[in-house]
Amino acid sequence: MRVKRYVVDSMPDALQKIRTDLGKDAVIINTKEIRSGGFLGMFSKKKIEVIAATDSAAGSGQPASGKSATATLAKPAAPAANALVGSTAAAAAYGMQRDREREAQPALSFPDVPDVLPASPPLQAVPAGAPPVSASGRVREDTLLEEIKQMKEMMKKLSSQRMPEADRDPVLTELERRLLDQEIDSQIVQELLARVSEEAEAEDVPVTEEFAIRSLRMQLHTLLQPQGGKAIAFDTRIAHFVGPTGVGKTTTIAKLAAEQVLKHRRKVGFITSDTYRIAAVEQLKTYATILNLPLEVVFSPLDLNKAFENLKDCDLIFMDTAGRNFRNEMYVSELNALLQSGGKSETFLVLSLTTKYKDMKAITYNFSKFKLDKVLFTKKDETDSYGAVVNLIRDFGLQTSYIANGQSVPDDIEELNERQLIDWILEDNNHE
């Protein structure tokens, strides 16, 4: 086994030298571009480093015909059978040769050449009389076959998932667009539509729009089915309202307080801890004056007992909290200290339908670590996308309560109606 290293200006020069030195059966093990000469890395010239080897003991002196030798050297990925058998030996011989060159030329200006095994050649029939393939060679071949098999399976799976648009059911395609426009999570959409197909197959009927809509209504109604009462319970004494800034907590409290006073004839009081926002206390004080209701302002949990004592004659107390960055768990933990109170209480998480679901999810996740009873949605009048309600109930299993659709007090609020919500979701908002 002979291994030689050449540094040349071009590949034709390398081929000529290899044919002359090693003969027509030589194979190229590795090639790479290097820089030679210059001063401190400047003015250096590009060179090509070529590592070649042959099994021939003589190896030299018989340059082959130009066509044959060029074909052998220009295609190192498909060497002769003896190169496959001796690949491990060629790498070992190359390493020994390189060590000898290092000792003989310690000041060599070329960069160090890493140990490189020849690329695994394609499988081919072994000629009669050729030496048997080694065990390590068989292992490499088996590994290569297994990788090819896995790649074929992966490509087949990918091609089956990317069904052409023309092959998809047009009814399901349109409903998928409609549900995704409502910002329902794509996984939920796929589950809903898969169920539609299963039901149609079980009943042996075509997937018409009427059939699909009916199936989706039933599935969404089951998903959104409330687990308890939506309104403030009659025996609730304290109703806490929490949520991020700007969702309309104070206005919502005024609407619900007016309903309790005018419709249910209950004696109501207000507590606010929203001392961060400018004029927040004045806003709630204005509503309290209009409704002739008492108002207490607390600056810390230490003030709560005094506030409850002052409002002990009230049947129901509405507590307004400060809107903070409730994506930050620290703020939620601080607020939780204000929610500790005697008597039966309910905590309403107030969320705006105009908020991105990703942010809704982060806020709800932080609050769900503490006491959270119901969720209330605001700003229905500012959007025509309601899929976040489906996502939130699916992800957290929350009990829905009210939905606000304007700023008028006390009119623009009502209990969330699941059937109406489903109508909003399935309605085509993009028709001309």
Low-confidence segments, ≥5 residues, pLDDT <50? 58-89, 105-123, 160-166
Number of structurally distinct domains: 3
The CATH architecture of the largest domain: 3-Layer(aba) Sandwich
* Helical run tally: 15
As a percent range, the share of helical residues equals: 40-55%
CATH superfamily of the largest domain: P-loop containing nucleotide triphosphate hydrolases
Strand content: 15-25%
Radius of gyration: 39 Å
Write the H/E string, N to C: EHEEHHHHHHHEHEHEHEHEHEHEEH
The major pleated sheet works out as: 8 strands, mixed
Description:
The protein is of the alpha/beta class and 432 residues long. The chain folds into three domains: 2-123 and 134-147, no CATH class; 168-224; 238-426, Rossmann fold (3-Layer(aba) Sandwich), CATH 3.40.50.300. Helices cover 44% and strands 16% of the residues. It is built from 15 helices and eleven strands. It has helices spanning 11-22, 66-74, 81-85, 87-104, 135-161, 170-181, 186-203, 209-224, 249-262, 280-291, 304-310, 329-338, 357-367, 387-396, 418-426; strands spanning 2-8, 27-36, 45-54, 238-242, 268-272, 295-297, 316-320, 345-352, 374-378, 399-404, 413-415. The strands form two sheets. Strands 6-5-7-4-8-9-10-11 form an eight-stranded mixed β-sheet, sandwiched between helices. Helix 14 links the parallel strand 9 and strand 10. Helix 6 packs antiparallel against helix 7 (186-203) and helix 13 (357-367) packs parallel to helix 14 (387-396). The radius of gyration is 39 Å and the shape is elongated. The model is unreliable at 58-89, 105-123 and 160-166 (pLDDT under 50). Residues 110-139 are annotated as: Disordered. Residues 236-427 form the SRP54-type proteins GTP-binding domain.
